[in-house]
Request: fold
Amino acid sequence: MSVRCELCFHHCILDEGQTGACRARSNREGEIVPLNYGRLTALALDPIEKKPLCRFHPGSRILSVGSFGCNLHCPFCQNAAISDAGEEIPSQYCPPDQLVEEAVRLRSRGNIGIAYTYNEPLVGYEYVRDCAVLAHRAGLCNVLVTNGTAEQGPWRALLPLIDAANIDLKGFTERWYRQLGGELAVVKRNIETAAAQCHLEITVLVVPGENDSEEEMRALSGWLSSIRPDIPLHVSRFFPRHRMQDRPPTPVQTVYRLAEVARERLQYVYTGNC
Reply:
């Protein structure tokens, strides 16, 4: 029996045993099952600024976890080894209660909670949700680092459990989003929703020749300021990665120039990877 996955905009219709575009969700006996539930491929105690979050508990650390799979196909992905992987990738099983216990243990080292990151965490929605519930009960914060492409139902249901999010806004044109396998309108909608419910910061990776014009940055920052001018924006420098190694890194001056454009409308603009 075919089943439709309702988690993201792809709405994959999957036959028995078939896996969706994200490589992490499959039809098993007529139900959509997260293949990556509790299967960790990355675990590290990171500075909160690495997420990046600059205005949420600065100076603290957070236990950062990742699994496998992603519902976009960015050719410049720096974590492609896990984002492009499926269930065949080596991983270690860690149930929610065990992860939260580890996060509590690390409080003595400055840990404030759990960050769901590295690959796209929302393709493992159920694990994020289950861990986030237990983390809040333990007095820990939940941080989500995401491409922001979940459908509204799951997105709205999860946000009350999320204390802070960084959404990766890939650019501000449908053309660029289509190349990456995404939809700009979905991300814009989810940014608007998140801005009203949790601490929110936005990251834009500036890719030469794709999303590096002043006009696009002016449109992006103007739209973001119309939601709230105090939403922090991170303007980040591209380096050749994965399937996009045919062009040079973004010039540092381009990053600084676009950050100045964004500061025309936004109160908090940071530069990254420079």
About this structure: Residues 37-272 form a domain with the TIM Barrel fold (CATH 3.20.20.70). The first strand starts at residue 3 and ends at 4. The mean pLDDT is 97.
